[in-house]
Amino acid sequence: PEAITIQELANRMAERAVDVIKLLMKQGQMAKITDTIDADTAQLIAEELGHTVKRVSEADVEEGLFDVADAPEDLVQRPPVVTIMGHVDHGKTSLLDAIRKTNVVGGEAGGITQHIGAYQVKSPSGDKITFIDTPGHAAFTAMRARGARVTDVVVLVVAADDGVMPQTVEAIQHAKAANVPMIVAINKIDKPDAKPERVRTELLQHEVQVESFGGETIEIEVSAKQKTNLDKLLDMIGLQAEILELRANPNRAAEGTVIEAKLDRGRGPVATVLVQRGTLKVGDIVVAGAEWGRVRALVSDTGASIDSAGPSVPVEVLGFNGTPEAGDRLAVVENESRAREVTDYRSHQKREKQAARASGMRGSLEQMMS
Ligand code: GTP
Ligand code: MG
């Protein structure tokens, strides 16, 4: 049910809250500034104060922002987006670093200074692969809960000297719940106490049957330290991507997901965005969550300034007026007033939710005290 606090209603009309309360009292309703009134009452009050009311619903505001279908003939192949998951210390970061140092797109090994949480590498066959730097399981879940589907393939890292551990099991469950195919990288096989066979057996106990055990899940023995089988891993990711037939329309207004965002002292709000459909360009007007902005600059994963970013490309977006949140979905809109409409509505919704939560908390606190 739609509702608004008296304070919020007054703010939106640029009236004093006390005048709203007076009108409510005239109608026999006693209310405090923090109280919530329903949309019909709010409309009556607003009209009484001489305002014209335009009631918008979520459907009106969000209409056409996402999920406008592409014609099949407009779709072209796009790189797979891969997330590395696994238990603490099993070598996720080491594996990503090793892959990145040898296979960065553009090939400048050692020239990587930037960390943007996501980057592209080239597989031995020349195809691009986008990696998302371990967002952590909580972030993965949060993104999924928000309907942001960013991962095409999960690489599950299991250390051969440690075996399947609690977070390994968690990762398996995440991948299954999200219905994302998984490739198992049995890592640290250079270690004398490595027991890759044991890993395979333990995985079986969690309903993951690897290929060498007659199952469907690809497994590869790797060593991040000695850079063993990294090309093979990339090949397998490429193979998996082929099966998935990943496609997107690059010739449309961009859509994507915020992977991470921060407020930078010099540059202002900086959002790392994975573009998923369309092409994001400098000058575009974007909304993400309750924030909007005009794209002032796009920075690639190697720190280069670029003019545009297409499907599966991770990019830093500069120009937001505020800092969006990880998991927020980004969309390009036609103009500033549309951006304002969308983000005004969303920030209003956000405030209402926070207020509702706060008053709920107050309620339970009062109960506790009585
Ligand atoms: P968290 O981010 O803390 O969950 O850890 P992680 O999974 O990213 O592991 P990380 O890459 O930080 O590696 C943990 C430790 O294992 C480090 O000391 C690495 O040097 C070591 N390590 C990673 N891969 C290998 C490997 O292939 N062989 C050996 N011998 N050691 C490895
Ligand atoms: Mg790590």
UniProtKB/TrEMBL annotation:
All residue ranges annotated as the Tr-type G domain in the record: 77-245
Top-level taxon in the UniProt lineage: Bacteria
Intracellular or extracellular location(s): Cytoplasm
Sequence segments annotated as region (Disordered): 345-364
Biased composition (Basic and acidic residues): 345-355
Binding site for GTP: 86-93, 133-137, 187-190
Function, in words: One of the essential components for the initiation of protein synthesis. Protects formylmethionyl-tRNA from spontaneous hydrolysis and promotes its binding to the 30S ribosomal subunits. Also involved in the hydrolysis of GTP during the formation of the 70S ribosomal complex.
Family: Belongs to the TRAFAC class translation factor GTPase superfamily. Classic translation factor GTPase family. IF-2 subfamily.
Designated name of the protein: Translation initiation factor IF-2
Part of the full-length chain shown: 329 to 698 of 908
